Amino acid sequence: MQCPNCGRKVRSKTQCAYCGYHFNSADKQEFKQDKIEKQESNVKYEPSSKVGREDRVSRRKAGDSVPKPESTPIQPIPRRSLDKEMAEAEEQAQENYQKVNRASHDQGLDEDESFKQRADEVFAYPYTANQESYQEDYDEEEEYIVPKTKQRSGGSVLATILKLLLAFALIFLLFLFAPRIIGKMKEYFAPNHSSLRQVPEEHQDSPNLAGSEAIEEGAQQEQANDDQDEEVAKENSATDQEAKKKNETSAGEGEKESSNPSSESEGKPEQSDESQLYQVKSSQVNVDDYPTIRVELDFDQELSKVDQNTFDFKVKYNDTEIKLDDEYSLLKEGKKLIISFVDPALSVVGEDTSKQALLIETEGFSDSVAYDVPSKDLDEEKAQELSKIAKENLNEQGDASLFVHVQDEKSPFVYDSKAVEADNLIGWFILQRIYELVADNKVQLDDTVKFNDQLLASGDFGTVATSDATEYTVQELIDLTIQQGDASAMNHLVQLAEGVNQFNYWLKESGYFTTRMNAPLAVEGENYISGAMTNATDIGQLLEKLANNQLIDKERDEMFKEALLQSPMSEKFPAENELVERRFELLTSDANTNVQHYSGIIETSEKPIIYVIMSDELEDPASMNTAIQQTISQSLDYIVEGQTTEDREQSEDESREEEANAEAESRAQAEAESRAEAEAQSREESNREASQVTLVDNETTAEISPSGENISNLYEGKQTDNYYWFGDEYRRGTWYQDENGKWSYY
């Protein structure tokens, strides 16, 4: 197409590549018309033109001139005024608009149709050609795209960087808070926060069903709810106590079965049975398995809505109330509620705690059940002595608990039992569960367990974690648990016992109310195993049954103890104590900087003694190991031989004195021997010098005395100081004065 502005030919039909002029439809129409005219004016090539060419060739050979065809000069296209064209187009559009307006007015069009016609004219502006010409131009136009250079600026780069930073921040916050949000959502949408389970009616008569229907430890209540419930419980308890003091009736002490209907305070208006939320009809207390206490409560109402968080339970003895937070199990059987727990006053020394009461409280309801527990047969003097040993050795190194129980004695000694991280002592409970499955023929010791990456303890570098083995026997996993405290091996054994949840159910069923697994075991720091909680009382109960072969059965208990003989020796064990004959123990690594535990059965010549020592908040692990060793050794001396702290201190003083005397005697003897040796050496040297002197007629003057002895104050018959050779032997000489007055010796 030829540009009407600069006259140059270009390939584009939309814009001139030289001057930038944009072609409009009139330009295109004009170019199209010129093209048609040129095509009509061109003469087609005919065969007769060949004759003319031959004629021109013959003329050129003859030397005649050949006329050249006339050339048509290029006529420049006059430049049109764009303003003029725009003005004409606008004028034409105005005329069209007026025509349409008059036509619509004459025809009486309504407002909508008139608006559409005006819009069509406006959209057609500034060109007045018909639609067919536009379509033809559009079909003939070639698409022409002018490339654009991508613009870059500092602002766009900065915006991109800010977007990336914002994305990273959102991802970080998602990883940080997602677990908490998921946990809250699970708690919110969960039907119950407790694991209270309804016992089927066909199994309600089974006394040992508590395990299979036990309650998994529920999630703890929020602090605000706890504070509110505690205030309500205190008010209800105070009201209930005042009412009971006024309406107290005589009841036989020591009864295990009692009926305790709820009593209302005299100061409050009486309420009908329908208005009361709960009412206890009767109660029964069982202490046959003391220190485990079992309380059965029969209610008048249905307990379908009761769960782990409905009631608050407290144990009261004398003027002390102890709240049972999570250290109990709850079982629901129809209208009966059964709660089992370990006596929280077990570690109290020097106070009679035989008379106790269980307080049951909730909003708008409170009741209590009185009961008696067996009196402790632990000698008070013995308890004070063991407490003194624990304080002197353990409390200086960290926060510690102590459990000591001599076989055949009714009550153990418990010092400050509390829930702490179990570390590898959770292995006691895992191994008991596995041996129970073996006794039930559900598991065999030679069964193989395939290695599972999901059960690998995080941070573990033990045998299971680093070995290339793909499977282990059950016995191999037991040995790794005892000998190495292998966390991954224990995870595989827990999975063999149907997983963490079922294992926690079994713990409640077995009466281990404090022990639980919060998650699969993991290893942190210096051989520190996290993920489980327990206390000295739970482990002590297990060891008591194992020592008496009452844990599972005699055969499995002996197998258990035989495997425990392979446990490694530790700095915490008093190996030098001659009273120890054999030991069955599990204990933490000596290098553990978080906790230091010892637990085991120590057999002496008289009877086995159970020890459980648990400590955390350590200042120095090495010092705590020494403190545990001294605690075990000193308590053994006291229990077996009756050696008290005073006796031990006196014996140590005497021992130190004897050692000092022996050391002094040894030092004096060494000094005497040193002096004698020095004198002998001096005499030998003198005799050696004397042997070199030649005696003439056995007479020697004092002036030439080879020994250089002082010859003053001599007298006849005085012995010489040194020994001299007299031809046959070494001996002292005898001084005499000759006729000339000279001193000599012979």
UniProtKB/TrEMBL annotation:
The keyword Iron-sulfur does not apply. Residues 405-614 form the Beta-lactamase class A catalytic domain. Pfam families: Beta-lactamase2 (PF13354). Residues 29-43, 51-63, 241-258, 664-688 have a biased composition (Basic and acidic residues). The chain crosses the membrane at residues 157-178. Residues 29-109, 218-284, 644-718 are annotated as: Disordered. This is Serine hydrolase. It comes from Facklamia lactis. Residues 649-662 have a biased composition (Acidic residues). InterPro entries: Beta-lactam/transpept-like, Beta-lactam_cat. Residues 274-284, 693-713 have a biased composition (Polar residues). One of its GO terms (molecular function) is hydrolase activity. It comes from the Bacteria. Keywords: Hydrolase, Membrane, Transmembrane, Transmembrane helix.
